[in-house]
């Protein structure tokens, strides 16, 4: 039996924010190509992402915000919501599939059909606040999945681990007042979106690091800060906002992580889940825009999830 699901949808390729925009469909193509070249496709269970339903989305976002997004879709061309976040006619199709991937992954894992899952989706989600699209994000995919675990499956405690180079301001915004959800993150600071360093809530374990920080700093934070806090929280399920733009080859940020750092972090999350008495992990793609390092890092992350 395969232990790891790979969830995606062709509609995620259709969202387009304009020529030369770094958040483009080439990212998913690079991941697919690397996955097949590595022979990993033989060891994974593949699923098409469904569309997330309004009921699932509105656990994390107000209904009026979802309606506003749907009404903002242009009939043709590209419409900017802010200087770096834009829609084309297919954007909401992609966004609904991206959110639906996390929901399906949560269902598969909690029903015992699979141990863990990776969602290869775009647009990403962790910058999407409760009622604001920004930072290439429209719907907060990982937040919608976490809410699904809490509300549809009745879990009492979950955790979201975020190792994207940027702070997941949207995830913090949605769960700042909800201690059922612990967020543990590392992010370059000061850096876009210029947040995360000032939240004092005990369940928000956000650790800023300076530009130039490398794997040794990352690993020390995971070992000394994340893991003790997460173990104390004792989550029944762990979500990963898997951004790979902290890689030293990715000029979207200025950190110095490499594939082995992502493998190590994935192994730490798996060990933590085991300590908490389960294997329930859902990982959702966030950033990562240098195509080669993105594809190599995702494949290394998936191999660690699948114990390959």
From TrEMBL:
<comment type="similarity">
    <text>Belongs to the histone deacetylase family.</text>
</comment>
<dbReference type="Pfam" id="PF00850">
    <property type="entry name" value="Hist_deacetyl"/>
</dbReference>
<feature type="domain" description="Histone deacetylase">
    <location>
        <begin position="21"/>
        <end position="305"/>
    </location>
</feature>
<protein>
    <submittedName>
        <fullName>Histone deacetylase family protein</fullName>
    </submittedName>
</protein>
<dbReference type="InterPro" id="IPR037138">
    <property type="entry name" value="His_deacetylse_dom_sf"/>
</dbReference>
<dbReference type="InterPro" id="IPR000286">
    <property type="entry name" value="HDACs"/>
</dbReference>
<dbReference type="InterPro" id="IPR023696">
    <property type="entry name" value="Ureohydrolase_dom_sf"/>
</dbReference>
<dbReference type="InterPro" id="IPR023801">
    <property type="entry name" value="His_deacetylse_dom"/>
</dbReference>
